[in-house]
Design a protein that fits this description.
By secondary structure, the chain is mainly alpha-helical. About 80% of the residues lie in helices and about 0% in strands. The chain is built from 10 helices and no strands. Helix 1 packs parallel to helix 10. The longest helix has about 35 residues. It is elongated and about 65 Å long. The termini are far apart.
């Protein structure tokens, strides 16, 4: 029964990451008037990200030991797999190992988002703030994501698209921070990222629909729906930025 717990924990962590950032984007979208008037509380608007990162960290740590009973049973039976359950050598243990760079990425992403929130708060207050440190941190996160996607096949679409989008966005942020209209370029790469992730999610769902269990299929369907909603919100925010209605973004 615990054979798939590690996989489900990792998938739940990915969903929590998407939900947290999707909710933050929705909150920013519905708070455009406060942002325009300079009354936005960025720390409060980023609350879903703080909760989401904590949840993802907890889920990844649980994933390390979630399938331990199944692993012990396989070792006692001297078999790599039991019945139709996943193999501990080619599926369970690699999934556990891959949570380590995932956790490192999560920590760096949290630090980046903390500095983004700090930068936006300072910009709203009219204080001078150098983007050098923030841009450097964002580039580090994007390069780590690209390396993860290039070196490991598991979730490579997620890591490669996210890394490429974040790297492009960081460069655009440094180049266009003086022009609020041109800062639509900062958000635009993430529209491409979400589109790639949505296509990958739908393809994965169609490819493995015949062998997926009901709970796995439900999680993948939920992921695709959330990505669709996130894409719509991103397109809307990109438009708002491009028409100069989100000057602090």
């Amino acid at each position: 029964r615990t054979a798939l717990y590690t996989f489900l924990c990792c998938l739940a962590a990915r969903l929590a990451f998407l939900v947290a950032h999707g909710l933050t984007l929705v909150v920013i979208f519905v708070s455009l008037n406060e942002i325009t008037t300079g009354q936005a509380n960025w720390w409060l608007m980023f609350l879903p990200i703080w909760v989401g990162c904590a949840s993802c960290t907890l889920l990844l740590m649980i994933a390390w030991c979630a399938s331990c009973p199944y692993i012990k049973l396989c070792l006692s039976e001297r078999q790599p797999r039991l019945n139709d359950n996943p193999s501990i050598l080619t599926e369970v243990l690699p999934e556990i190992v891959l949570t380590i760079p995932g956790l490192l990425f999560l920590v760096l992403a949290f630090c980046s988002e903390y500095h983004v929130c700090q930068y936006l708060t300072a910009a709203q207050a009219g204080a001078e703030s150098s983007p050098t440190g923030l841009t450097t941190l964002l580039i580090m996160v994007s390069l780590l994501s690209l390396c993860q996607g290039a070196l490991f096949k598991d979730n490579s679409a997620l890591w490669l698209s996210l890394g490429a989008g974040l790297l492009t966005s960081a460069i655009c942020f440094a180049a266009t921070r003086k022009s609020s209209a041109q800062q639509a370029l900062v958000v635009a790469p993430f529209v491409f990222v979400v589109a790639c992730l949505l296509l990958a999610s739908v393809h994965r769902l169609k490819q493995y629909a015949a062998v997926l269990r009901a709970d796995e299929k439900t999680l993948l369907q939920t992921e695709a729906c959330l990505l669709g909603i996130l894409g719509v919100c991103l397109v809307s925010v990109t438009y708002k930025v491009s028409v100069d209605k989100l000057k602090e973004a």
